[in-house]
């Protein structure tokens, strides 16, 4: 293993350049920009290193179009002997830039041992580290057993339906093809992420009656009805959620309770035009909610807490009418610590970093949900460089030393998994 670790050190400049190149693809989702050139950049690199490369477009998935095709790359290299398959999955999409940056979001600027840019931490640094780890391992072990796969996938930031979900439906994560999956999400180099909380997104719409804004008494304001919904959340729901606690090792600690975020709210006429709005009483108001729940909770109970409050308003508030629509739902998932991939990465962290790993659960979901639920593959974790709190923030960065250390852990984990040495 020492020769592999030295190879990774020797590849530091390549690791930096690869990370910078990936950041410079503005793969913003939505709408799904630059997916195709980013995927082909990865494919050309891996072809040169002997990988069989496939590009898979997720036709018909949300957002897929000829202008913004959902292009995924899957690269596979078989070893010289029979053995298991280790798969590294990274998403190539990033969220919007947002405000507050002091660096070029797509410049890949280096300062103080860090590479800055949107997606540096989440998760192009992890993707680059996994590629360097795999390349170093293969160079040192050209006759390795089994197979190694790398995927760069779409749309993780919007649910993963054009990426891992689609690939899982097509059999790319079937147990007769893949044995172990590592997702290099930014959870810190000494932590193993076993899974994530559950999520339910829904849209609540309150209804009213349109009238002239100078005579609101002739109408019924849907926004005021939504205000009553928010009051119920503040008075009843939020205190109840704060009492729900989990034994899951969720990080940060504030996420060890159930949470609800109001993602957006809008009522009345849109203001996305020049000029003054029309003087109307709004007859509709919509709210999107993001409910994160724990492995100890059942999804039907989670939904029931909301509908109970809405039904009470229907009974007690004059003219209150509502509709609720499911947008997105994912069950919590947690991999058992005794699974081979957990043991292999744990051993690698102990050997490379000379520390025992922390086991954590992510507060938000990531693509493990599809590998678990659709692919039926339980031997899956997230492990990668980067600080989770930096994800989606301005001046996002990934540490170069952290990427090197994580690449060494990944290489050691590959060795452990392909050779059946998890301890």
Automatic annotation (TrEMBL):
Pfam families: M20_dimer, Peptidase_M20. Keywords: Cobalt, Hydrolase, Metal-binding, Zinc. Residues 195-316 form the Peptidase M20 dimerisation domain. It comes from Cohaesibacter gelatinilyticus. InterPro entries: ArgE/DapE (IPR010182), Bact_exopeptidase_dim_dom (IPR036264), Peptidase_M20 (IPR002933), Peptidase_M20_dimer (IPR011650), Peptidase_M20A (IPR050072). Its cofactor is Zn(2+); Co(2+). This is Succinyl-diaminopimelate desuccinylase. One of its GO terms (molecular function) is hydrolase activity. Belongs to the peptidase M20A family.
């Amino acid at each position: 293993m020492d020769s592999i670790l030295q190879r990774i050190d020797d590849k530091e400049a390549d690791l930096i350049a690869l990370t910078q190149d990936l950041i410079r693809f503005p793969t913003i989702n939505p709408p799904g920009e630059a997916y195709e050139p980013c995927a082909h950049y990865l494919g050309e690199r891996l072809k040169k290193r002997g990988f069989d490369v496939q590009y898979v477009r997720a036709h018909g998935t949300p957002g897929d179009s000829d202008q913004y095709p959902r292009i995924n790359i899957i690269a596979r290299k078989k070893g010289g002997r029979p053995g298991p398959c280790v798969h590294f999955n990274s998403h190539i999409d990033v969220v919007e830039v947002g405000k507050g940056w002091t660096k070029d979001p797509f410049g890949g600027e280096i300062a103080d041992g860090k590479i800055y840019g949107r997606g540096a931490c989440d998760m192009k640094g992890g993707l680059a580290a996994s590629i360097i780890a795999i390349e170093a391992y293969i160079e040192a072990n050209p006759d390795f057993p089994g197979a190694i796969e790398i995927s760069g996938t779409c749309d993780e930031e919007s649910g993963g339906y054009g990426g891992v979900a689609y690939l899982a439906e097509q059999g790319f994560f079937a147990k007769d093809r893949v044995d172990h999956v590592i997702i290099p999400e930014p959870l810190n180099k000494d932590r193993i992420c076993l899974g994530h909380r559950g999520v339910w997104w829904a849209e609540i719409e309150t209804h009213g009656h349109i009238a002239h804004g100078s005579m609101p008494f002739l109408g019924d304001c849907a926004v005021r009805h939504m205000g009553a919904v928010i009051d119920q959340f503040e008075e009843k729901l939020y205190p109840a959620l704060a009492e729900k606690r989990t034994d899951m090792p969720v990080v940060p600690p504030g996420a060890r309770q159930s949470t609800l975020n109001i993602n957006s709210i809008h009522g009345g006429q849109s203001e996305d035009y020049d000029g003054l709005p029309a003087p109307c009483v709004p007859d509709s108001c919509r709210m999107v909610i993001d409910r994160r729940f724990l492995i100890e909770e059942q999804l039907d109970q989670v939904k029931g807490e909301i509908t109970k409050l809405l039904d009470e308003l229907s009974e007690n508030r004059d003219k209150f009418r509502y509709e609720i629509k499911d947008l997105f739902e994912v069950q919590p998932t947690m991999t058992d610590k005794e699974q081979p991939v957990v043991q292999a990465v744990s051993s690698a962290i102990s050997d490379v970093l000379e520390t025992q790993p922390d086991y954590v659960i992510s507060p938000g979901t990531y693509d493990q949900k599809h590998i678990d639920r659709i692919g039926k593959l339980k031997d899956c974790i997230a492990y990668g460089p980067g600080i989770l709190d930096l994800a989606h923030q301005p001046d996002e960065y990934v540490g170069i030393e952290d990427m090197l250390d994580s690449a060494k852990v990944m290489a050691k984990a590959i060795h452990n998994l392909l050779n059946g040495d998890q301890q």
